[in-house]
Structures are given as structure tokens and as C-alpha cells.
Design goal:
2 helices; 86 residues
Length: 86
């Protein structure tokens, strides 16, 4: 699954790293994001490698440095929960 970025919080780690609305979050530290729990778990660390897909279809990697546990600062088009899993 991937998640379209609706907005980037001003001054957030995502904003400082150059992430933009309209891009799609593909993975964090090589881990595909399936739902909001994956997103919260994999974005907890201080150093992140985030893979994004631009509106032009190009894929790029962004390095993020932040305080451990600090929210990345992204809001998504959908809630990232597409169906119940167990």
C-alpha cells in the first residue's frame, strides 16, 4: 500500500526534509507502510530513509533526522487503514 500526502506540517521533520503534498509515501527505512500502525512504528526512530513517489512518477529517497518519537508531520488523503487485519 502507499499513501498520498495531503499536507506537510510547517516546521515539521517532513517539511525540513523537503517532502511535499501530492507525493506518495512508499516506504520508511525499506519497510512498506500498510496502515497507520506501520507508519507510527517505522517513523519513531531518529534517522529515517523515506521513499516517495512524485506526481510525475519519479521515485526519490529523502533522509530525515528528528527527535526519537517526534511525529514526522504528514497528513494523508486517506487514513492509511484500508481494511481490518489480524
Amino acid at each position: 500500500m502507499s499513501a498520498a500526502i495531503k499536507s506537510v506540517q510547517k516546521g515539521s521533520p517532513a517539511a525540513r526534509s523537503g517532502m511535499h503534498p501530492g507525493e506518495t509515501l512508499l516506504s520508511v527505512n525499506g519497510k512498506i507502510i500498510h496502515d497507520v500502525l506501520d507508519y507510527q512504528y517505522y517513523t519513531y526512530d531518529r534517522k529515517l530513509s523515506v521513499e516517495l513517489k512524485g506526481q510525475d512518477g519519479k521515485i526519490r529517497k529523502v533522509r530525515v533526522r528528528k527527535v526519537e518519537g517526534e511525529p514526522l508531520g504528514l497528513e494523508f488523503e486517506t487514513y492509511l487503514m484500508d481494511h481490518a487485519r489480524s
